[in-house]
Amino acid sequence: MVQVLNQEINLSMLTDKQISLFIKREDQIHPFISGNKYRKLKYNVLEAQEKGATTLLTFGGAYSNHIAATAYAGKTAGLKTIGVIRGEELVDQWRQNPTLRMASEQGMEFKFITRIQYRDKTDNTFIEKLKEAVGPCYIIPEGGTNALAVKGCAEILTSSDKDFDVICSSAGTGGTLAGIIEASDPSQRILGFPALKGDFLKKDICKFVTKENWQLITDYHFGGYAKVSESLVNFINNFKDKTGVPLDPVYTGKLLYGIIDLVQRDYFSPGTKILAIHSGGLQGIQGMNLVLKKKNLPLLKV
Ligand SMILES: *Cc1c(COP(=O)(O)O)cnc(C)c1O
User: Fold this and answer.
1) CA 132 – ligand 1 centroid, Å
2) Active site residue 169
3) What average pLDDT does this structure show over 163-177?
4) How far apart are CA 266 and CA 151, in angstroms?
5) CATH number of the domain at 35-144, please?
6) Helix runs in 136-229, H state only
7) Of residues 34, 64, 169, 170, which has the active-site annotation?
8) Gyration radius (Cα) of the chain, Å
9) Which end of the chain has the least Cβ crowding within 10 Å, N or C?
10) How many CB atoms lie within 10 A of CB 245?
11) In this structure, which topology does domain 6-30+150-294 adopt according to CATH?
12) Pair 109, 100: CB distance under 8 Å
């Protein structure tokens, strides 16, 4: 089982508030695959192989960490990969996109569909038509979340992590958080920081968990998925300078911004030991910098 370092974060504001903060460096599992996407794919790839599948098919947007991860995981396992990508306009522009270029270099084939078609991605008739078009394949949902993904994410926590009072993780589809909740001790508090706007998440997580020692902190999505502000970029650049830990702008930057803000506001009582999960996402920085440049915003340091 892959295990990573918990890195202690030394910042004077943490010492002042008597809070100890560690970051689990899941980003160090792989230079391109987000740590949590690696965990989510592990048992899905095994299941695909057991079923004799030769192709993995999944869904994602142009900068998706999950698309990048599936391309790498498929290549490593000797499976063909197909990415169904949101945005028909990318058909002749995808080579400008660093995520899709990397995925293609790993052998992934793309099928670009319109944003409207993309809304049907979980619809049975849509999936059946896709299967007819591409042939037999093992289908992984957008974001990679299913029961096998949750099983993989439960391996993020180890027995020595029981020492932490609070465990914080970013949440997109909630699969990662669900795995962490299931692996946690009931005495620990699990806080999920959604990177997206919307109320669907709580219900989705409840499908996978039985414990009740968790809640969502919904104040730090910065306007929604992949939305980034100047203050967030500055925070991420500062955090890297001061701690040496690189954060991604879509998930872990918002997570750490939220944790530090909550510490500042005395949300945690003195003496609290916090573990934040660095789920990865660093491959997305390059693509985000292209977007920031267009908007004349400061860039993320690489
Ligand atoms: C996908 C992703 C998440 C969110 O994971 P979910 O299981 O969808 O909630 C968090 N962090 C990073 C870096 C990701 O790539």
Assistant:
1) 30
2) no
3) 97
4) 34
5) 3.40.50.1100
6) 147-153, 175-183, 200-206
7) 64
8) 19
9) N
10) 17
11) Rossmann fold (3.40.50)
12) no
